[in-house]
Amino acid sequence: MTFPEWTKPGIYGALGGAIAISIIGFTWGGWTTSSNAQAMAQKMANDEVTLALVPVCLGLSAADSERIEKLATLQDLSGFGRRKAMMETGWATHPGSDKPDRDLADACLAELALDGS
Question: N or C end of the chain, less CB within 10 A?
Answer without folding.
Answer: N
